[in-house]
Design goal:
The structure is a homodimer of 346-residue chains. By secondary structure, chain A is of the alpha/beta class. The first copy, chain A, contains eleven helices and 14 strands. Chains A, B: InterPro entries: KDD_N, NAD(P)-bd_dom_sf.
Chain lengths: 346, 346
Amino acid sequence: MVQGSKFGVHRVIAPKGALPQNCDKLDNNMDVLYDNEILIDVQSLNIDSASFHQIKESCGADEEKMKARMFEIVEMQGKHRNPDTGSGGMLLGKVEKIGKDLEGKIDLKVGDKIATLVSLSLTPLRIDKIHKLNMNIDRADITGKAILFESGIYSKIPEDFSEAVALAALDVAGAPAQTAKLVKPGQKVLILGATGKSGMMCAYEARKRAGPTGLILGNARNEDRAKYMMEYGFCHKAVIANAKSPIDIYEKTLEATGGEEVDIVINCLNVPDCEMSCILPCKDDGIVYFFSMATSFTKAALGAEGVGKDVNMIIGNGYCKDHAEITLEILRESPILRKMFEEKYV
Amino acid sequence: MVQGSKFGVHRVIAPKGALPQNCDKLDNNMDVLYDNEILIDVQSLNIDSASFHQIKESCGADEEKMKARMFEIVEMQGKHRNPDTGSGGMLLGKVEKIGKDLEGKIDLKVGDKIATLVSLSLTPLRIDKIHKLNMNIDRADITGKAILFESGIYSKIPEDFSEAVALAALDVAGAPAQTAKLVKPGQKVLILGATGKSGMMCAYEARKRAGPTGLILGNARNEDRAKYMMEYGFCHKAVIANAKSPIDIYEKTLEATGGEEVDIVINCLNVPDCEMSCILPCKDDGIVYFFSMATSFTKAALGAEGVGKDVNMIIGNGYCKDHAEITLEILRESPILRKMFEEKYV
């Protein structure tokens, strides 16, 4: 039992001096627990949507190949950071052991069910077996172990939620909590990826914050998806267009608003090359909030400059204060959203 | 002579429907000028610092190899977008022809000297000859032609500046103009890459905005660079550390502030893997402004989450309203800065 760094630097094998997230190799030996670490008996991994999508595509949706790829990633790096997307995901498990420096100082005890709210891209992980891939919800049920560092954040699974629903919601907790901070009364908001889970939660929260004088637009790729989205009642109007066609998104958005650009664009997609579809419909001095892990920094920075748009582009931080509480409260507030999560994830 | 799209979509060869910035191949045939285009007789290219650095590294600093690589990039794409960094730069040239839809509607006439303020990553370009690579200032003097689209922004070279100085300053115009918007009186600001030209301009502007109760910290990689930086007098203190060592940057910053995290971190570096060095020293609810084109979106997004930091991370937009005017005005205000630019770039 030895003292480790708050940020987990003691587990970094290479390169030396890096932090766990951007290192290439983490020590995932679970036989040694440092005094400020928490050992977790892992039950499932919620793979980040962009990452799961990439693994699925590259393996032709063959489940056995996908499992092999997941083992390979962890074998290579000691963590589940997809080398192609750079992203991770999160996990659900039971507290197995608490390092002695943390014992009594945190609100956890051995046996508690928790979800880690730090990315798998920096979490030491060992996978012993992958029991099942839940293809439509990007979840892998496994046997394995993981380590939570002292600076790592987590949430206990609340008693009024099933594990699967809590995990699915907490996975995207940053997005609706940021939406709550950003959207002001009367604003026009466009949400890309509005038919997915984070998009739905953002649409719900945006509508609440924008209030009766606001306008929430949800992008859907076709009539069917638009109908599905509109039935939830969070968006006022659908913008039906391919999110990779910026000109089309721009024109359809202006049609929906009566010619005005929107105040805020929120990107909850999991596919690349949608930067310009976010930038074009946003008004000068407006906000583009990129929650999609498939966003390219340079495409956004140079793209806005290229079309002379003075928009504030924000990198979606997976964490913001009280994000777990805000997100779970949304599901408590909205029976419709909760039902959707329960149908999809249980 | 035919009518083209405002955004230049008519020049996109592949993939269809993309905008010029993220397309793979642009039509750089300069024999046809669309009615809403401007043809420029190019004199020099200011290659984006991250891009120039990458080309230099990959060619072992061999000038002939670097020239060949530049020709190859333009041959491949019809524009100078470095495939490895995704970034471009800007150019200086003389207006050769103005499409008839724009004639009389803009403040340009044939023969005017202009700098384009949109990235080379979306500018149709033909290079006929590279006369000289100015290795220390990332500039290539060439003979060639380029096209400015209708939505493209530009600045006439002001009469009170030499071309080289104006070009060098306008190249980083987004950074000091954004700094002017972000920094408030009394704030503590850390600038990474503070010994470079954009870093210097940001430090100058940050000090002005933060006022007498503010604290401007500049990162330098060693004692010599720190001495050089401190002589300019824009930073109050130097933080001497390797910008790729987040823990070191964090500790040295706290030493400099007396234990407090800073309000704003501005990244003006041109090297990758510095995301965490920006995030760690920033206080909760503070702002991290990434102007470096070598920034990774996922490393920033997941990195902040990984250490539980609720910081607002902004993608440095190369454009913001009046950025050219703000930036040139800084050089008029500060004889020290202007002298530095004149010594370095003339």
